[in-house]
Amino acid sequence: MKIDPNSSKDLSAQIAQAIRDAIISGQLPVDKRLPSEAELAEQFDVSRPTVREALKRLAAQSLIRTQRGATGGAFVNRLTFEDAYGQQITTSTLLLSMNAVSFETACEARYALERACAPLSAERRGADHLATMRAEIHRQGQPGLSDEAFCASDVAFHRALVDGAGNPVLSYQLAGAVEAMQPLMNMITFTARSREEIIALHTSIADAIEHAAAPAADTALSALQRYTVQLARDVIAERAARSG
Description:
mainly alpha; Arc Repressor Mutant, subunit A; Four Helix Bundle (Hemerythrin (Met), subunit A); 2 strands; about 5% strand; elongated
């Protein structure tokens, strides 16, 4: 593991990258104890506080864990998909908000991904996934449910559909699509949407998943996409008319 002392990049970031690369390459396997702070400081020819900062960066990414005691130290962590969900959602949210991705572009990507997942969910979903979808549909129909709660229920419904595919890689990839894109879409469309229409479409999706009818699930998701896009167009046009 090496760093470039002449690089303009922060030394702690370079050290964190070097250790991260060693973990990815297998040079530092899961549960391997890292050298001590003093050993790393000597190896990289930096101060111990610089090493400590690098280790904090790695711990924040769940790549290492620390243990106290005589046999303690920093160890390579086994990163799970669940551990990485939060980072995926945060990154997706930042990308969408910072790069001014159009509503229709985000909507196209979000539903294309979910429609690709739906056939697997129709085939593999468990009773718990279907029960969650039905429970969220019931929740969405409750009188007095706030817009924030409806949005949260909307996300939970679609996450159950995705997780029903039984593929952790898909669940991880779609975490950003559902939990970052869906709330952003709801922020634009909530004033114009019909909860009854969304509940009806969610019910069609759940019925299709329950009966392993992948084409019907695709049809219902496509209808939900068209409805969502049209809502956004109507809202944007109304805003333009008011400002004009």
